[in-house]
């Protein structure tokens, strides 16, 4: 059940009473996102945090040369948003696209703010999510500057173990910052080592 999944996700950080669960779930808006459909596009203001209940989303940007740079993946039981746009309410810098048919529960920024007042422990929950996102972004930046492509791939495998065999290689290559051709050669070397 999608509601069970999101409530279990919350329980990792906060405990809600039955009444608080009902208030929270009343604010959620279910949405189906078809494969290759966008939940958010570059330049759009991000008005929602999305919790994935099934399927997978990816957040990415496109540079001036038209090259895609994958910033994050969100499989089931993950949250995703363009954090810059959601917090600042300025036009976003990310595209968020479904890699397969995906079901999400959307929580609007306005309803998130209401939750902070009605159930203050939600401030704690979303602070943890924001801090974790900041730490992950900073670690990725440091990794891209200091680790080899193989080490970055190993980190990807630890972060997204359920996605390794489900994503196209070009998506993984983009995430770790290499070309698909380099990734294919590197993966062959890794397989031979084992």
UniProtKB/TrEMBL annotation:
Sorted UniProt keywords: Kinase, Transferase
Ranges where the Cyclic nucleotide-binding domain occurs: 31-116
UniProt cross-references to Pfam families, sorted A to Z: cNMP_binding (PF00027)
Highest taxon, organism lineage: Bacteria
CDD domains per UniProt: CAP_ED (cd00038)
GO molecular function per UniProt: kinase activity
InterPro entries with a match to the protein in the record: cNMP-bd_dom, cNMP-bd_dom_sf, RmlC-like_jellyroll
Protein name in the entry: cAMP-binding domain of CRP or a regulatory subunit of cAMP-dependent protein kinases
Originating organism: Mucilaginibacter gossypiicola
């Amino acid at each position: 059940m999608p509601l069970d999944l999101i409530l279990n996700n919350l329980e990792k950080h906060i405990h809600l009473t039955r009444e608080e669960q009902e208030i929270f779930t009343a604010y959620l808006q279910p949405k189906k996102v078809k494969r290759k459909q966008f939940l958010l596009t570059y330049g759009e203001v991000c008005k929602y945090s999305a919790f994935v209940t099934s399927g997978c989303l990816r957040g990415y940007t496109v540079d001036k040369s038209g090259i895609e740079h994958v910033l994050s993946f969100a499989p089931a039981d993950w949250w995703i948003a363009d954090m810059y746009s959601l917090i600042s309410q300025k036009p976003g810098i990310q595209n968020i696209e479904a890699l397969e048919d995906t079901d999400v529960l959307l929580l609007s920024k306005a309803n998130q703010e209401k939750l902070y007042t009605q159930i203050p422990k939600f401030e704690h929950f979303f602070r943890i999510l924001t801090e974790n996102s900041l730490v992950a972004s900073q670690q990725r930046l440091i990794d891209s500057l200091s680790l080899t492509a193989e080490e970055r791939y190993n980190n990807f495998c630890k972060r997204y173990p359920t996605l390794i065999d489900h994503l196209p290689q070009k998506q993984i290559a983009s995430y770790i910052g290499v070309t698909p051709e380099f990734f294919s050669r590197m993966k062959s070397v890794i397989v031979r080592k084992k």
